[in-house]
Each structure stands twice: as C-alpha cells, then as structure tokens.
Design a protein that fits this description.
Layout: H1 10-23, H2 27-34, H3 49-58, E1 71-72, E2 75-76, H4 89-101, E3 114-115, H5 116-127, H6 136-146, E4 150-151, E5 161-162, H7 166-176, H8 193-204, H9 224-231, H10 238-251, H11 261-270, H12 275-291, E6 302-310, E7 318-326, E8 333-341, E9 344-352, H13 354-359, E10 360-362, E11 373-375, H14 376-381
Antiparallel strand pairs: 1-2, 3-5, 4-5, 6-7, 7-8, 8-9, 10-11
The structure holds zinc ion.
Length: 382
C-alpha cells in the first residue's frame, strides 16, 4: 500500500480485517472496499462490516443463533451459500442499505408489507450500474442490518416481508423499473429519492459525501376535501364509485391529491372523463359543501388575464382588466371584467357556458374579484 494522508481510521482497519476473515479475501482488497466513497453511508451512518457479520448470527429472525445459517444468497431456507467476489461484495451491501434508507420505515402496528424479492429488483434497477446484481439474500441481510421490521408470515419459501412504505416502494419500483407504468405525479416519492440519486453519482466519481443529510419533516398539509372523499369509498352509489376511482388514482400516482374541491375539478380538467363522471363530481362537491358549510367555495383555473391603460372618457385616464377562467365543466369560461375609468367604473363576472350557468351559482355576498361558485343545488337548498 502507498502511504498517503488518508490513513484509514482504526474503525475502517478493524472492519477490513473482519470482512477479510469472513469472506476469505485479502486484507488489502477488503480495506479498499470499506474505504470506498460508495460505502461510507450515503443517506446515513456507514454500515459496518462487523455489524453485517453480527446480524447473520444474532438477528432474531434471520440470525443463526448458534445453529445452522438461516440466510443465504437466495434468501431464507434456501441452503444457498454466499458468493463473495472480494471486490465489490461489501460495497454492494452498503449500497443496498442506502437504497433501503430512502424509504419511510413502517413501525408499530403496521406490518412489514413489501416482499424482499420485489425490493431486490427495485434495488438492482435503482443502483444500476453501480450494483448490477442484488440477490434476495443480500436484500434481506441489508434490511436486517438496518434494523427494519422483517416478517415471515408464511414460514415457507426464500422470501420475507420488509418494513418499508408500500406506496413509496411501488412509486420507486415503477420509476426505475423496465416495462413499468411510470407514475404521473410524485406524492409518494420517498424523501431520500433525489438525494440518493445525486450522491450516488458523485460517490461513484470518487467524491466523499459529507454526512448529515436529514430527511425533511413531513409537511402534513391539511387536505379536508381529500379526507372526506376517501371516507366515501365503499358507499353504494355514484359518489362511492367516484371516491373509489379517485382513491385508486392517488394510490397509483395517476393524479395528484385534491386538498380542496376546486382541485378535484382541476384534476378533471386534465384527464379525459365521461360527462356522467363530471356530473358525479358536481354532486360530490355539492354534498361536501352541505356537509362542511365552513368550507371555501369553488374557484377555477385562470387561463388568461390582461390589464390595459385606457385614455378615458374625458374625466381622466384609467385601466381596463379582463380575466378568463375555465368554467367548472372545462368546456367554456368564466369572464371577469373591470373598467377602472373615471366616470365609468364597472365590475362584472359571468359564466360563459350554458351548461355551467344552469348548474353553478355565484356565492352571494362576495365581491367581483372574490367570486366563488357553488353547485346550484346547494344554493337552492339554502
Ligand atoms: Zn362549463
């Protein structure tokens, strides 16, 4: 070895000795691996080789605990020996632990719910080309070393269940996998997803990644309309069907979350739908407004807006403003106009869509700039 300023720390030397003995490879190759920038912990503390080795004997579920090894390359109960290449085996395990760290772990009553075999593919896709093959056994091994919940509900076969968020995993699986339907929106993107992609590339170029990445605290934006709509799933009517479709669309990342009723209309403007489905949306919004009278009313997306100077009508100059918004059904517009001219001031807003004019009313008592809509059936009931 060439002496340099970066004399490996005692911890790295101890780790290299342990890994060298465990895998039957040379100390120098083990030291090269444990010193690699890729193996220093990209989203958290470095996972030590000694910790990895200890887990195989001590872990309550996958540890041998004095008996025969339970875990091998293909998983549990598979009687498949580990194949260590002496060049990248430790680095690969370190990368798999970082891949698992990007997900929110499940806890408490939440069962471990993602199959190790599915996660192994996700790890391979995500970590490619830095780690081209991930075995089922190594995925389980890394999860155990991280202390993630692990379950063995069927007590059969080589696969186990790992305690990471099922929705986040589904999102990543579809983002990185081949032949997958890509998510359209990103509400289930794990906190560490972009961070890990970025630092993985930098570490692969030899850069040492500073520790200290902290997952952002969940924002927890209130989503009262979303919460209400989700509670309607299971109803035996059209609103129940709409709620089920909406819920499936959120789960599959086909569309975003509608925090407000206005956002549900906006989502409908983006996806193709039948006129029956639109009518159901109007009924659902009417029911929601009747249930939650304190709710904010409906505003739609602005599609254009202009303000012009005006020479005026003899009493000085002014401005005119004209704004167009989509109407609720999306086929027409709502027009808001302001004449701010001395001696000639006028403010008006109207629905330029026959269908929507029949189905929606402006909420009373609001200014022209502050207009809001509610379904006509709500106004009629007041
Ligand atoms: Zn309309």
């Amino acid at each position: 070895m060439t002496p340099n300023n970066n004399t490996p720390s005692r911890a790295l030397q101890q780790d290299a000795r342990a890994w060298s003995a465990f895998t039957g490879t040379k100390y120098t190759s083990a030291l090269r691996q444990v010193s690699s920038p890729l193996a220093q912990g990209l989203l958290g503390p470095r996972v030590s080789a000694r910790r990895l080795i200890a887990v195989l004997s001590d872990h309550e579920l996958i540890g041998a605990q004095g008996g025969v090894p339970l875990l091998g390359e293909d998983g549990v109960r598979s009687d498949s020996p580990w194949h260590f290449d002496g060049k990248s085996d430790y680095i690969q395990l370190a990368l798999i632990t970082d891949m698992l760290r990007m997900f929110t772990p499940t806890s408490g009553a939440e069962a471990a719910e993602v199959g190790s075999y599915s996660l192994k593919h996700t790890a391979e896709w995500f970590l490619s080309p830095h780690c081209s093959y991930v075995s089922n056994g190594r995925l389980i091994w890394a999860a155990a070393a991280l202390g993630l919940p692990i379950a063995d509900p069927n007590r059969d076969g080589p696969n186990l269940l790992i305690g990471v968020s099922e929705r986040e995993h589904d999102y990543v699986h579809r983002m990185v996998g081949s032949g997958q339907t890509r998510p359209q929106v990103h509400h289930y993107r794990p906190a560490g997803y972009e961070q890990l992609r970025t630092v993985l590339t930098r570490a692969a170029d030899g850069e040492s990644i500073p520790h200290g990445w902290v997952p952002p605290a969940p924002v927890g934006e209130p989503a009262p309309f979303h919460d209400w709509l989700i509670r309607q799933v299971g109803r035996n009517d059209v609103v129940g069907d709409l709620a089920a479709d909406y819920s499936a669309g959120v789960r599959d990342s086909d569309h975003r979350i509608a925090c407000t009723a206005s956002e549900l209309l906006a989502i409908f403007h983006e996806v193709s739908h039948s006129s029956e489905a639109y009518d159901t949306v109007v009924s659902a919004i009417a029911e929601w407004i009747r249930t939650e009278p304190s709710t904010t009313y409906i505003r739609t997306e602005q599609i254009s807006g202009d303000s012009h100077d005006h020479r005026g009508w003899g009493a000085g100059s002014g401005t005119t403003e004209r704004y167009e918004y989509l109407c609720p059904c999306g086929d027409g517009t709502i027009i808001e106009e302001h004449d701010n001219i001395p001696g000639f001031r006028e403010h008006d807003v109207w629905i330029a869509c026959d269908k929507c004019r029949a189905e929606w009313h402006f909420v009373e008592g609001r200014g022209v700039r502050d207009w809001a809509l509610q379904p006509a059936s709500v106004s009629a009931a007041v």
